[in-house]
Every structure is written in structure tokens, then in C-alpha cells.
Amino acid sequence: MSEPQQTPGITTYDVIVLGAGPVGQNVADRARAAGLSVAVVERELVGGECSYWACVPSKALLRPVIAVADARRVDGAREAVSGRIDTDRVFARRNRYVTDWDDSGQALWVKSIGADLFRGHGRIDGPRRVTVTRDDGASQTLTARHAVAVATGSDPVLPDLPGITEARPWTNRHGTDSSTVPGRLAVVGGGGVGVEMATLWQGIGSRVTLFARRSLIPRMEPFAGELVAQGLTEAGADVRIGVRVTALRRPDPNGPVTLTLDDGGELEVDEVMFATGRTPRTGDIGLDTVGLTPGSWLDVDTTCLVKDVEGGWLYGLGDVNHRALLTHQGKYQARTAGDAIGARAAGRPLDEHAWGDHATTADQHAVPQVFFTDPEAASVGLTADQAERAGHRTKIVDLDFNAAQGANLHADHYPGHARLVVDIDRDILLGATFVGPGVSELLHSATVAVAGEVPLKRLRHAIACFPTVSEIWLFLLAAYRRDGD
Asked: EC number(s) of the enzyme (predicted)?
């Protein structure tokens, strides 16, 4: 194992990682496994956005809402559900999973792998050089023999609207760390964060109005957004598609917020949350010192090495490269990049062929994503429209889940739909989308099929257990064959 080297005022490591979220932790772990010395720099909490304000708290909060909804779909269980969700216990559950925003456990994990943790703001200061400034103003200089990996994540974007500063809107952080239920909540944005937050807060007692410019979860198949909108409406939310907020007013800081809408109306709410996109957290990390534009997304190659930086030492992982703003995809990139850093440091050749050890091929072909709404929406690979625009000859297979008895046993009148996008020239799946209760557990099988390019003639031999929701695979494949392909 390589060790850090100290000279007066400077400590040299093989690898410096900016950001100690899941992405930064994974690249650090892989680099350590390759025998390299590693410094990890974090200016907030070790564990990052995912652990404290995004994936973990949102799912901890959503699970009670979905559990109650699932029970209400089953005769006999439905009658046992009475009263309202206990919000104090829901928030307490969230607090347990975010360890009361105490990152000491994750900081110990960084130490356990043999990496050194530096708390403070890390800023690139020229090639292979990072300055870390602590909250007390003291600074330390680190240099990297082989790599600096940027895994600083992203920040929410607030639109430039009249009155937005006065309105003091929520972002995803307020949406997951608040312990007070607003009586009326407006959620602006129909993407994954918007639909999950609308599901959550409607489920625990808010009267939610959700605004989306065009559709819900537009990166999935159109039917996914339609079924999620239907589920939110049935839960009591007011879903307004094609209506935009044009201004906000909150003259009393403790009073309601008034939204001005482009259809001529107004809406008064107690809080408003914007889920209208993300921007890379690269504005103040010294990109200008290596010829890059501060605040920009990082353009990377298949190993996540940043292009247009001389010397081949700067890597961009996770949100900052804008490939897929998903924790699991960032961790995949980090594992791949960590292995590439180790290989390059040892002078070994890289396997950068498609699906090779040092290629992030899945970023283009097999990105899985799940939105924990009611019903859930899950997809991997290309949508039908994306496949057509990419020039593939395809067959689209659509089925409602009630074709599978396992789905009907899971939930009476199971609400859901499934789609396969098949490349008819190669007899493989290009994409799959499932919408329905619990479909997140179907997604990995679809991801294996897409990433593995499993021929459908072989896939039909993967037998789904009876009676399970996964039986839908049998019916989808049978429908494909009946169509003469």
C-alpha cells in the first residue's frame, strides 16, 4: 500500500477525492483496494446529499405512505387501516435513517478503509493540487501523484421569478428534513423529485398542488407519468399539467405564499417547493485554475477522465458529469473510475471496450431508475421514442399487469402497465418500463436483460415463480411471440 508523503506545508497522496458522498466513498474504496493512498475532502456531512437530504430520507418518509396505500388495496387488510398516519413517528423513522444528521459513523468508515478525511472546502489550485480550507480559516495543501476525483454532486436550481426570494421556497432539502406538515403545499416540477415529494406530503396530510409544464416524469414512457398523475389525483392531490408559476408573494414571512399562474389564476399555499432541476456543484472548486469554466458540467470519457485537461489526472464522477443524476449510477461510475485509476497508476492496460472493466457503457444503454410514487414507476434502457430516434428497428410490447395472476393477488384490481422495447434485428431488449405497486423489485431483472443483451429466445427460459408479480415477464414475452417475431 502506498502511503502519504509529507513535506513542509504539503501532503502528497496518490488520489484526492473531493466529496465524501456515496460516489466519493466508492472511488476512494476502489483506489484503496488498488493499493493507493487516498485523501477524501468534505465540506458538509460525510455521506453527502443522498444520505441526509435525498435518497435515504425521502424513502424513509415515503415507505409508510406506500405501506398504507398497499394495505388499502387488499380486501381484509383495507378494513384494518383507520385514522391518519402518525407523522411524529414517520419523522422519527426518517431521523433514525439519517442518524439525526450525525455523520460520525460514515467518517469512521472512511478511516476504516485507510483513507484520510479532511473536513473543509476543497479547491483545485492548479494541476494535481488541492487547497483545503477549514471553517476556522486554516488551510492545508494536498497534491496528487495520480488523480483528483471530483464527486461534489449538484445543487437545486431555483427559477428566476419575481418574488422568489421573498417566498423562501423549499428545495429537496426542506422537503426531506422538515418535521412540520404544511396544510397546503405547492410542488413545482414534474420530475422524479417533484412526484415523490407530492406523494410524500399528500400522504402525510398536506393538500398538495403539483405543477408540471408538460408531463410528469418526462424521461420515462408517457404512460408512466399518466399513471402517476392518476395515482396522485386519486390520493387527493391537485395535478395541473401545462400550468406555470409566473410570480410569488409572501409579504408576511410567517404567512402564506401566493402563486401567480400563467392561466390567469392565483393559488394561496402555506409553503411552495421547487423541484425544477439541478446544477453542478463545481462553481467554487477551482476549475478555472486548470482551464475549465467554473460552474460547468464536466465532460468525461468512458473512464470518467475529464476531457480538455492536460496530463490525464482529473476525473468527474456522479452528478457533476451530467450523465445520470442518480446515486446508483454515480457509484457505478466511481467503481469503474477507481479501477481505471488503479490500472493507470500501475501501468496496466485498460479494458475500455464496450462493457469492459474500465468503460461506463451502462451510462448510455442500461440506466435503471425508480420513482417511489403510488404506483411506483421503474424503467431501464431506452424508451420507445428514444429507440426510434436512435435508428433501431423495434417492436413495442404493452400489457396491463392484470394479465398476471400474481399481480392480482398482490393487490386487488392491481393498477399497472408494462412495456418492453425490443430490437428486432438483434432479438434483445433495449428498454423496459413498469408502473404499479412494488414494481421497483422487478427492475433488476430487466436491467440484467438489457445490460447483458440476453436474447429473447433465451430470456423465455427464465421462468417466473407462480404466483408473483414477476409473471408479467411471461406474458410480455408470449405477446411478443404472438405478434410473429
From this structure: 1.-.-.-
